[in-house]
């Protein structure tokens, strides 16, 4: 792509680094911004800079947060003994949108995936095991996507806590295999949390 302006070229190249955006789309966005009032670009760049500089990770559940302890973890009306294990903030958002869950979360930050070079030590698993060890948890609910990586991760954690008194369950698979949680509709997802099944049953049936 030939640019007649270095400024445009630089902006396009930056935006085109984002996933799913090619240079053509990036150019369209840049030209759109140029047609808008200048402030819009200022607000956009400020929002991005502030987000990047001020974002924190909850020290309890590792979810992306505006403060050291996220709003969910600091809510005393929630059941802190029930912990739903998810991959990232999108899963938390999807489950929160169902309005059916009153426990807290544990955000792993990914799934075990040897092909991508992601092992257990790169995920936030130790702090979860620690909570179980300290009897802070009565139930663990696995809510990772039904992929091989999700299953591997569930099983890895399960093996570490199977001997404990913690009830271990998994969301009912109303969601088709391979579907990501964020795409499941709210009603289906809400129901699958309410109708969760003991984890052991879920893999013995497979
Ligand atoms: Zn939290």
Automatic annotation (TrEMBL):
SMART domains: TOPRIM (SM00493)
PROSITE patterns: RECR, TOPRIM
A Pfam family recorded for this sequence: RecR_HhH
Toprim domain boundaries: 81-176
Coiled-coil residue windows: none
Keyword tags: DNA damage, DNA recombination, DNA repair, Metal-binding, Zinc, Zinc-finger
Protein name: Recombination protein RecR
């Amino acid at each position: 792509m030939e640019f007649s302006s270095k400024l445009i070229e630089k902006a396009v190249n930056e935006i085109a680094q984002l996933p799913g955006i090619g240079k053509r789309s990036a150019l369209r966005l840049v030209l759109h911004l140029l047609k808008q009032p200048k402030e819009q670009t200022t607000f956009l760049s400020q929002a991005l800079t502030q987000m990047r500089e001020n974002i924190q990770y909850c020290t309890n559940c590792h979810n992306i947060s505006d403060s050291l302890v996220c709003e969910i973890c600091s809510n005393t009306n929630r059941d802190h003994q029930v912990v739903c294990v998810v991959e990232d903030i999108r899963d938390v958002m999807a489950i929160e949108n169902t309005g059916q869950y009153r426990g807290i979360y544990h955000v792993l930050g990914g799934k075990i995936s040897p092909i991508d070079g992601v092992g257990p030590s790169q995920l936030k698993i130790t702090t979860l095991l620690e909570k179980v060890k300290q009897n802070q948890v009565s139930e663990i609910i696995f809510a990772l996507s039904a992929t091989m990586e999700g299953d591997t991760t569930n099983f890895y954690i399960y093996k570490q806590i199977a001997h404990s008194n913690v009830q271990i369950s998994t969301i009912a698979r109303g969601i088709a295999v391979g579907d990501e949680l964020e795409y499941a509709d709210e009603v289906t997802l809400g129901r699958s949390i309410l109708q969760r099944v003991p984890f052991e049953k879920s893999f013995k049936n497979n």
